[in-house]
Amino acid sequence: MNTHLPLLCAMFLVMMINLIRSQSNEDLYSNCSNLFNCGNIRGIGFPFGGGNRSSRCGHPELQLVCEDNAASITISDVKYKVLGVYPDIKVLRIAREDFSSGICSPLFLNTTLDPPLFSMANGYSNYTFFYGCPNWPTPSAPGQFSCNKSGITDKKNYGFPGAMGPGNCLESVVFPVSQSLLAQSASLENIARQGFEVRFGVDSAACARCANSKGVCGYDNSKNTTACYCPDGSLVSATCSPPAAGGPQGQPPPKGYLALAKDDLYRSSGALSLGTVNSLEYTMSHICPTVSPTDLLSSPPAKDQP
Ligand SMILES: *[C@@H]1O[C@H](CO)[C@@H](O)[C@H](O)[C@H]1NC(C)=O
Ligand SMILES: *[C@@H]1O[C@H](CO)[C@@H](O)[C@H](O)[C@H]1NC(C)=O
Ligand SMILES: *[C@@H]1O[C@H](CO)[C@@H](O)[C@H](O)[C@H]1NC(C)=O
Ligand SMILES: *[C@@H]1O[C@H](CO)[C@@H](O)[C@H](O)[C@H]1NC(C)=O
Ligand SMILES: *[C@@H]1O[C@H](CO)[C@@H](O)[C@H](O)[C@H]1NC(C)=O
Ligand SMILES: *[C@@H]1O[C@H](CO)[C@@H](O)[C@H](O)[C@H]1NC(C)=O
């Protein structure tokens, strides 16, 4: 039948577009306009990615994850609960997730905040937990604790200020603690659970310039710099240029062939929406010689044909 040809043409094009599915800058312009929302952590944009924000909306090491309404971030292989994000002052408040169920079974990996991206916030200093030690330290540490855990039950465990390796002990873990919390002689469990603040050094001035030019900030991994996605789908390293009045943007799409694309993949200015077909929204961006939109809409979906 005559009506099958346009349908096949359309289906082929949809398949092709799905095959070459890689996020265009235009998608990223709208995708990176989303903010990360998860539990108490709300309205987070650049320099963070994750959640409903593509990873390319933020720095590769600032990717948030939302699980069970709790935000987390993994830095140098250690997973942290995100307790607060303060982009204005470039501070992230995090706590090691392995300490959330107590201090006896951590991942034996130091908290590592590698420069130039990260630095420890003011008022924090290094602290080390030692596990499975033959003796108490000299001078004696106030932070002694016991763990009912195979291998270390009858050994000594303690916390000590500074960053140190295990020495004679079986394991050690270095992480930042708040000096004021230490001064209050808070319990070690409390010190570990409270978490710490870390500063992240990302070029926010570049993002402000981008946003002022009606662009949306993202991150260009190939150049290690802030990227600026513009409404017209271009990726620029600085600012978006103002749209030229009466330019090609306002012109109707060229006639000649028809391409259908899932609406979230291909948004061309001036495109006509064909509405919802098989519960996916399609946009007509070009006109196929063999097909008119009415052909398509009057053709039943292939799977419903007898
Ligand atoms: C992503 O978007 C969906 C639908 O709008 C929303 O329900 C969900 O909470 C969002 N998730 C995050 C992490 O922002
Ligand atoms: C943004 O892109 C990411 C990765 O492609 C995707 O998981 C997410 O659902 C997108 N967000 C929206 C709102 O479409
Ligand atoms: C904390 O220890 C690390 C090494 O584990 C070191 O590079 C860093 O400078 C120390 N930070 C402070 C504030 O002492
Ligand atoms: C230590 O753990 C073992 C098994 O995990 C348990 O039988 C024992 O009662 C625990 N001891 C203490 C003092 O909690
Ligand atoms: C942890 O940090 C201490 C002090 O910088 C270092 O001596 C030790 O080797 C580190 N441990 C691991 C597992 O990297
Ligand atoms: C980007 O940073 C990574 C890690 O810091 C580095 O390995 C890479 O060479 C950098 N790329 C450029 C183009 O600067």
The proportion of strand residues reads 25-35%
Bound molecule kinds, no repeats? 2-acetamido-2-deoxy-beta-D-glucopyranose
Total helices: the number is 6
* Termini Cα gap: 13 Å
Indicate the low-confidence ranges by residue numbers.
15-21, 245-306
Query: Which structural class matches the secondary elements?
Result: alpha+beta
Shape: elongated
State the strand order across the main sheet.
3-4-5-6-7-13-8
Mean pLDDT comes to 79
Structure summary, number of beta strands = 19
Q: Which H/E pattern describes the elements?
A: HHEEEEEEEEEEEEHHEHEEEEEEH
Q: What is the CA-based Rg, rounded?
A: 27 Å
Roughly what percent helix?
A: 10-25%
Largest sheet: 7 strands, mixed
Question: How does this structure look, described?
Answer:
The chain is of the alpha+beta class and 306 residues long. Among the domains are: 4-24 and 257-304, no CATH class; 74-200, no CATH class. The chain has 6 helices and 19 strands. A hairpin with a 2-residue loop joins strand 4 and strand 5. The longest helix has 16 residues, at 4-19. It is elongated and about 75 Å long. The protein binds 2-acetamido-2-deoxy-beta-D-glucopyranose (6 copies). One 2-acetamido-2-deoxy-beta-D-glucopyranose (NAG) is lined by residues 110, 120, 125-126, 163, 174. Residues 109-110, 163-165, 174 line the site of one 2-acetamido-2-deoxy-beta-D-glucopyranose.
